[in-house]
Known about the structure:
The chain is α+β, with helices and mostly antiparallel strands. The protein has helices spanning 5-26, 32-45, 91-103, 119-122, 130-133, and strands at 50-55, 58-60, 63-65, 70-75, 79-84, 108-113, 124-128.
Amino acid sequence: xxxxxxxxxxxxxxxxxxxxxxxxxxxxxxxxxxxxxxxxxxxxxxxxxxxxxxxxxxxxxxxxxxxxxxxxxxxxxxxxxxxxxxxxxxxxxxxxxxxxxxxxxxxxxxxxxxxxxxxxxxxxxxxxxxxxxxxxxx
Length: 138
């Protein structure tokens, strides 16, 4: 399947629907790992392909560095997801997601914080980068 901006936007909408379903069922205040596992079940139910705890490759001066750097979810091989369950989002989490997106050559990423009252309004932030701007519209 050819990835386009329209495809990624529809995928983002579907993924956020999964997050909202999990949040509606569980509410705020649990550990990130609980939301992660429940979100995986929701993705399976919706038949959205994903990989969990994907290793992020790091190349430094053309040398592959062995790290244990992992991103929470990669959805359909193009949408990077970093999950949180914290009382306050910090700018460093945004920087972390943008770095993961760059290292994985991914056009879009979502930072999700389940520790909020309204996940759609307060608990998610979407990011795009230069890879996204190079995608076709449809």
